[in-house]
Task: inverse folding
């Protein structure tokens, strides 16, 4: 009868059998999550084990001819110096993943703490931190990165740290909002009535609850930082020694290289795309699984 | 008798769930004559709202609907299938439970009232506006002109429900379905809204289906009352007959849950023990047997059919209240202290024996 | 009025904080003088005057004349004064409408901004128009038939789109449309408006497609939520057509997240799309910013920062205004 209806309307609350009769919905991560997770594990393993894998030296020239297309001997082809692109793609994962992981770790440690402090103590502390966060957000992220990396040097620790600093503001905002929501709950009030110190409440009561959304966001954040690192490469600010996927894409994207051997750019693009896709997907599923809501954006 | 305005025959509505088919409405039939009011009474989950939604073509597409619905000799199901544009909202309209949520918060009241007039009756903006003022006046909203320019959040709950009623009256419907129209409102406002609906029905000669969980609401207002439970009709009669003597134990139980003015001030209200049954997994017997103090051995394996009684009453029960079978079952249950369904009779406060 | 005043205070505070941060970082981490006079900036003039250093290489940098150049430059750009005073001087100039002078070519910063900003704004405008024009009808269609084939395919497509970084998309588009098929020019051309628009098509697509995917996801989700509201059921009961309900009832209350994120993205794009401008060689504000930061040309960076921060605050304000248009309930509160 309702076949002419808007199917977006197809779950009016009153007649939805699950809503009405409490039929339990089984929460599962699903096959997609495990495929994505497998991809991430394979990438991480390849990156970690790169020196011991039976692949060509990524910096050795003349492994194949100049600009050989993908084939049996060089799966991903070679670049203009005859270096093996398959090997380089795996080595590129090392830098990209290191930057991605450690910068988000830094962001969570600093931003998470700041957000919790702001959300828990409120008042003047909150206003100072929130304003700083607002300024950081008003400041174009890449400009900040340009400044710090351009002036402090293009080394792996500096690049990682810079991206970590960029992650602080949005993470602090999320952590503050989560803390605000939780510190309203009864269990926090109960702890306070029982005479727990602020420190104890924050570590024992709030931290575990704030960490869950943070954990799901680590994967999503990693995806973002890997991409931002690639962006830095386009501004000539990737690591000077070694190379990330981003730097490889830059090297492969000059009109001449694209004309002669598009694979030089396309394989790192593919690797980055698949990894970011897997991280996004796994992160999304985890967030749904733990029922973490996307927190509203707005300056408080 | 003349041809009824609305005729529903053996209506069945099911939803496929992970555990099996949920029978939300299971073989409901009724007729409603022009200008008459039918009260449909039952607890939540009894299928009364789904029945209304079926009539209004508001069910989700995955609902499985069987049976026939005829409105003034027109096949309602067929109209739904063909995508008839000017039937719902014109001939048949509905007022919902919660006026807080059934008005669009970002549209002005005037726009929302005029909408039906513009879409269905092709009124010009100006005409629609004038008619809207009229409608608001008819439903007793003070300063109707000013209200048209206001947003729903600027009105009180009672006023909003009046706006919703005005909206549903815009195209002069012949049947108005009111689904728990006062449940979400303040007690003080409830009676005003019910009286208003009654007056409007009277003036306009339209038919009305009044859906509620409260027998008290339909008592003085409905011509016919249908009591539903677990998607089925339990008892149906004209109002006077039903209230003079109820046959179905569920009807009796429902009545005991509401306070009455003529009760002594310390009379205890008797809640119905237990919960409505799981509509996916209704066993063989009477769906109410588990909660019924008149339950007999026959009620558990065998679902009673609707039977005709005096004054056109129909009732689906093996042991109707006030009949020999009913009295016998009740006495037997009280003596043993437990019904055949295993319900402790102690959960009921003593009720007056009916001879 | 009070709202406006509060916004102004916020604007001033944000601009001051952001520029002070930039000013300090650029002056302590880098050496602005280097960019004014070149390598001679590194000359140790005290040692030269004392005659301790001689011009061994014959390339200059050790003569008294070089020292005079250095001293002159220090004087001209007030580099001798302490940082806070120089910052104060800069702020004072700014209030008078003077953005200072770029170290490169001694061009007034306002000239640089006036040259670069319109190109970035044009690119932003095209990208946003493209993103909105694509995502809104797309989301309406998907929500209209939620969970059907089209909706599922779009959802997956949008998810995939978001995993493709915009520089990767840029390279892919560049490869096909510029290198392979040679449909579009490889760099920005500025002859007339038509040429300008044409050379911005690919960059706008590069920026716009991920935005469209973002907007699609937000709007689709919100539309589906709205379609389950009671007032939509009520509208259906009034016999209104699905199209009418979609456009006149569901769309407006579903636009909040879209507007918020639209605002954030627009604010981010005011400063130019650094990477996309780089890939497609567009002389926009973003590239000016990149070049200036690399060169330690802080007057330009500060000028751009003022523009960006102002844009950020202004757009946040605009978003609030749009909120109150979308939802009368917000209007009452503010």
Result:
């Amino acid at each position: 009868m309702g076949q002419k209806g808007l199917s977006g309307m197809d779950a009016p609350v009153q007649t939805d059998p699950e809503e009405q009769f409490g039929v339990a919905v089984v929460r599962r991560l699903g096959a997609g999550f495990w495929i994505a997770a497998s991809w991430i594990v394979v990438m991480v393993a390849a990156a970690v084990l790169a020196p011991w894998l039976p692949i060509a030296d990524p910096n050795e020239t003349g492994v194949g001819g100049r600009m050989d297309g993908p084939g049996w001997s060089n799966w991903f082809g070679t670049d203009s110096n005859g270096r093996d692109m398959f090997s380089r793609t795996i080595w590129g994962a090392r830098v990209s993943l290191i930057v991605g992981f450690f910068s988000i770790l830094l962001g969570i440690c600093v931003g998470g703490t700041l957000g919790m402090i702001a959300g828990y103590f409120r008042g003047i502390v909150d206003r100072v931190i929130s304003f700083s966060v607002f300024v950081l957000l008003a400041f174009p992220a890449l400009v900040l990165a340009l400044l710090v990396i351009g002036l402090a040097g293009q080394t792996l620790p500096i690049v990682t740290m810079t991206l970590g600093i960029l992650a602080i503001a949005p993470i602090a905002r999320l952590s503050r909002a989560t803390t605000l929501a939780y510190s309203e709950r009864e269990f926090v009030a109960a702890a306070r009535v029982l005479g727990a110190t602020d420190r104890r409440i924050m570590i024992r009561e709030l931290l575990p609850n704030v960490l869950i959304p943070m954990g799901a966001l680590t994967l999503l954040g990693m995806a973002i930082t890997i991409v931002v690192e690639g962006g830095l490469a386009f501004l000539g600010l990737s690591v000077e020694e070694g190379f990330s996927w981003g730097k490889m894409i830059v090297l492969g994207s000059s009109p001449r290289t694209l004309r002669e051997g598009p694979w030089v750019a396309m394989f790192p693009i593919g690797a980055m795309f698949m990894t970011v896709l897997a991280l996004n997907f796994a992160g999304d599923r985890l967030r749904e699984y733990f029922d973490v809501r996307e927190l509203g954006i707005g300056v408080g | 008798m003349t041809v009824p305005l609305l005729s529903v025959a053996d209506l069945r509505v099911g939803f496929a769930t992970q555990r099996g088919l949920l029978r939300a409405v299971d073989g409901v039939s009724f007729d409603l004559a022009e200008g008459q009011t039918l009260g449909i009474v039952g607890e939540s989950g009894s299928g009364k709202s789904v029945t209304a939604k079926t009539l209004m073509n508001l069910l989700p597409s995955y609902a499985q609907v069987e049976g026939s619905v005829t409105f003034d000799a027109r096949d309602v199901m067929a109209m739904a299938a063909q995508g008839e544009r000017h039937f719902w909202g014109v001939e048949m309209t509905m007022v919902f439970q919660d006026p807080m949520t059934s008005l669009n918060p970002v549209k002005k009241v005037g726009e929302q009232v005029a909408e039906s007039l513009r879409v269905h009756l092709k009124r010009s903006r100006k005409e629609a506006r004038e008619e809207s003022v009229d409608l608001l006046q008819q439903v007793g909203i003070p300063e109707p002109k000013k209200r048209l320019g206001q947003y729903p959040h600027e009105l009180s709950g009672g006023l909003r429900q009046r706006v919703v009623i005005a909206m549903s009256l815009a195209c002069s419907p012949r049947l108005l379905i009111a689904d728990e129209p006062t449940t979400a409102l303040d007690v003080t406002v409830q009676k005003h809204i019910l009286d208003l609906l009654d007056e409007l029905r009277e003036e306009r000669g339209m038919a009305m289906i009044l859906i509620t969980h409260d027998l008290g609401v339909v008592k003085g207002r409905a011509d016919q009352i249908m009591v539903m439970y677990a998607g089925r009709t339990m008892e149906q009669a004209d109002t006077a007959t039903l209230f003079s003597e109820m046959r179905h134990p569920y009807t009796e139980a429902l009545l005991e849950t509401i306070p009455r003015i003529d009760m002594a001030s310390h009379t205890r209200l008797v809640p119905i023990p237990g919960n409505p049954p799981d509509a996916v997994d209704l066993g063989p017997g009477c769906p109410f047997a588990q909660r019924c103090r008149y339950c007999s051995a026959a009620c558990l394996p065998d679902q009673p059919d609707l039977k005709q009684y005096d004054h056109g009453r129909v009732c689906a029960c093996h042991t109707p209240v006030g009949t020999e079978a009913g009295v016998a079952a009740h006495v037997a249950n009280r003596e043993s202290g437990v019904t055949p369904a295993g319900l402790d009779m102690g959960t009921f406060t003593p009720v007056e024996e009916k001879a | 009025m009070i709202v406006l005043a509060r916004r102004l205070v916020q604007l001033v505070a944000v601009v001051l904080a952001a520029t002070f941060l930039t000013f300090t970082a650029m002056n302590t981490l880098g050496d602005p003088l280097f960019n004014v006079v070149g390598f001679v900036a590194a000359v140790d003039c005290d040692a030269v005057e004392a005659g301790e250093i001689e011009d061994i290489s014959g390339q200059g940098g050790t003569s008294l004349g070089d020292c005079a150049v250095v001293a002159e430059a220090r004087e001209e750009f007030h580099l001798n004064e302490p940082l806070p005073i120089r910052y104060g001087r800069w702020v004072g100039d700014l209030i008078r409408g003077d953005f200072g002078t770029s170290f490169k070519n001694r061009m007034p910063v306002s000239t640089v901004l006036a040259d670069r900003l319109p190109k970035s704004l044009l690119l932003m405008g095209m990208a946003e128009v493209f993103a909105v024009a694509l995502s809104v009808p797309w989301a309406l269609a998907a929500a209209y038939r939620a969970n059907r084939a089209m909706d599922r395919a779009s959802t997956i497509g949008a998810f995939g789109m978001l995993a493709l970084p915009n520089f990767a998309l840029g390279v892919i588009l560049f490869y096909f449309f510029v290198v392979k098929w040679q449909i579009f020019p490889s760099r920005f051309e500025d002859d007339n408006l038509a040429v300008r628009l044409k050379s911005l098509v690919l960059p706008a697509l590069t920026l716009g497609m991920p935005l469209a995917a973002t907007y699609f996801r937000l709007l689709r989700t919100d539309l589906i939520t709205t379609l389950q509201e009671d007032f939509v059921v009520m509208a259906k009961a009034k016999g209104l057509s699905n199209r009418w309900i979609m456009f006149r009832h569901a769309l407006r209350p579903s636009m909040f997240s879209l507007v918020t994120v639209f605002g954030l993205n627009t604010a981010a794009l005011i400063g130019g799309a650094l990477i996309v401008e780089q890939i497609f060689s567009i002389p926009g504000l973003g590239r000016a910013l990149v070049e200036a930061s690399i060169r330690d040309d802080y007057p330009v960076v500060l000028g751009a920062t003022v523009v960006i921060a102002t844009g950020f605050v202004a757009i946040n304000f605009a978003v609030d205004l749009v909120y109150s248009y979308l939802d009368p309930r917000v209007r009452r509160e503010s």
In short: The radius of gyration of chain A is 24 Å. Residues 32-289 of chain A form a domain with the MetI-like fold fold (CATH 1.10.3720.10). The CA atoms of residues 119 and 181 of chain A lie 9 Å apart.
